[in-house]
Sequence to fold (176 residues):
Amino acid sequence: MQSTTAQASMHMSAETSPAAASCSCSLPKLSTRAAIASWSLQIIAAAILGQTLFFKFTAAPEPVYIFTTLGVEPWGRIAAAVSELIAVILLLVPRTAAIGAFMSIGIMLGAIGAHLGPLGIVVKDDGGLLFGLGVVVLLAATGTLVLRRAQGLAQLRSGLGMLGFGPRPMHSGTRA
Fold:
């Protein structure tokens, strides 16, 4: 009897473990090609976002100038840095990559909008580098979200269901 229990526990997969059983959503798997493409895009977006974090958190002159021009220094700079840090972490965790991609898209739409508005495409003689990096992150995050759309939709449905917005059971024809 004990050997059967040991064998069963040795063969227990992550999907049948008690921890996995507490999650009601199983995410769709990506094909090998889609997974490679998605990971490539995720790493590009995370690397660019992650590289700028140091400058935002240490109040380097360029981010201070940008957020002062936008009228939101220092709290806007710090909030942007924290948001980008969360997006980087989410992008690098396979289960949350679609959420990280969605968050990155929102962040980059704001950044690109600021460049097309009060900042201008060229900031402090950077030749448009920050604007270009923002576009690259936007495209990489969009590609990631497209490749992981089934996973993102499954997570959205699961989250909405936990909030009580899931499908409601049909009632019989009885009235009170």
